[in-house]
Structures are given as C-alpha cells and as structure tokens.
Write a structure and sequence with these properties.
By secondary structure, this protein is mostly beta strands. It has one domain. It has 1 helix and 4 strands. Strands 1-2-4-3 form a 4-stranded mixed sheet. The protein is elongated. The termini are far apart. The chain binds zinc ion. Zinc ion binds next to loops.
C-alpha cells in the first residue's frame, strides 16, 4: 500500500476528495498530508445543497492526531462557492 492510499484509508478520505501528497519532514518531526478535491467534483451549497460554482479556494491547515512521534497536519484548498 502506498503512503497516499494508507493515509486516505486511516483518515477516511473518500471521493471526490483524495490524498494528493504525503511528505515527511524528519527534521521538524512532522507529516504533512495534502488533501485535494477533484477538479470536476460538484460543489453543493452548504446551506441549500444546490450545486454551485466555485469562485476560489482558501488554503487551510489542521493538526490531526500524531503519526507515532510525528505531528501530523492536513492541508487542503477548501473551495468557496457562489450560491445562486
Ligand atoms: Zn445555497
């Protein structure tokens, strides 16, 4: 199993999201997991649920539970949408 598949499984990442990168920064004792949304994925409005166009994405970073002794961070560009 590859590292991206491993982290997708243990983090519960499912389509249309995917783990696009996993990098180990040994000198900082961190694991950085990058999660990305498929470019053709629908983006429903969180208020009304209607599919809505994206106008940009905001980079976000979250601390997750450690991977052994390594601090683990999740990063993603979270899409922002314009609801009609
Ligand atoms: Zn809406």
């Amino acid at each position: 199993m590859h590292d991206r598949d491993l982290y997708a499984t243990i983090l519960g990442i499912r389509a249309p999201w995917q783990v696009s990168d996993v990098s180990l920064k040994a000198t900082e004792s961190t694991v950085e997991v990058t999660v990305a949304l498929a470019t053709d994925a629908a983006t429903p409005c969180p208020q009304c649920g209607r599919p809505s166009p994206r106008y940009d994405a905001k980079p976000r970073r979250w601390r997750h539970l450690d991977t052994c002794q390594f601090k683990t961070f999740i990063t993603a560009d979270v899409p922002r949408i314009e609801c009609a």
